[in-house]
Amino acid sequence: MKLGLIFDGYEPFHEYKCPGQIVAGINDAGGEAILFTLKKQSLEGYKAPFPLIQIARWEDLKRFRDISCFIVYTWISPKYNGLIELLKGMGAKVIVKADSDGRIGLSVKPRPHFHVLRFLVAPPWWKVPLRFFYPAQRKHDWLKVKQMRDIDALVVESPGAASNICAFLVRMGCADLIPKVFVIPNPVTPDIIETPLPKKENLVVAVGRWDDWVQKNPELLFRTLGRCLPEMQG
To answer: CA dist 48 to 20, 21, 95, 229, Å?
Structure first.
């Protein structure tokens, strides 16, 4: 069976992260997998160690009807609902990769969203903001439920993530979708497993995208080190 993995934001460094390692692992195990991503300048001249196809738009996937199953990174975001409908229309199975702790964008107790309407009144340079309630969060949640209903399986990376998504489905009255939720940890490159452990040193090492201020929260690391290091030295 030929598999396709769709990750629109693929960059060369993802070769060593879960999108690349999933495709590499399937091929190493004797399967046949292709990674699809949107065409981008950063991939010009890049040669992946596995089949990589860049497409200009999602409709180009219709040329690959021989692929019977797609793994799609959507983070359960409704903006990918159209892509899922396209794949299902091709007759393919669809597995969504949530790639999160199950909490991002899935609030069990969402706060009401407020939108600001601004319009001009006399004098013309004076704008009056009007706040009105609009159930934006509820609508967004139902679009996520639609995605989970349309797909064949949803993969999350930890039992805690699965528990949170199941609680979300219960709150939405869609407990029948819980059997679609599966826990599969992210893969790692073989060298991480095979590398021998050196002798322990009194050294703090932080590896990751520490320039990603929002996701990785390096500020918390700095504040923690600022409190702990003086005590360790003492």
So the answer is: 9, 11, 23, 41
CA–CA dist 6, 53 (Å, integer): 10
DSSP code of residue 58 = G
pLDDT at 104 over 60: no
Amino acid (1-letter code) at residue 113:
H
Q: E strand or H helix at 175, and its extent?
A: none
Task: Count CB atoms within 10 A of the CB of residue 39.
Answer: 12
Residues β-bridged to residue 129: 118
- Distance of alpha carbon 174 from the chain centroid: 22
Instruction: Give the pLDDT of residue 25.
Output: 95
Residue 171: CB atoms within 10 A of its CB come to 15
Contact 1/69 with Cβ under 8 angstroms? Answer: yes
Q: Where does 45-192 show beta strands of DSSP type E?
A: 52-55, 69-73, 93-97, 114-121, 126-133, 153-156, 181-183
Instruction: Tell me the sheet residues that pair with 228.
Output: none
What pLDDT digit, counting tens, does each position of 135-178 carry? 556 788 899 999 999 999 999 998 988 988 998 899 899 999 99
Domain boundaries, the chain: 68-190
What's the CA gap between 158 and 80, in Å, rounded?
23
Tell me how far apart the alpha carbons of residues 33 and 27 are, in angstroms, rounded to a whole number.
Answer: 6
Whole-angstrom Cα Rg for the chain: 22
- Spatial neighbors of 195 by CB under 8 A, at least 6 apart, are none
State the pLDDT at residue 145: 95
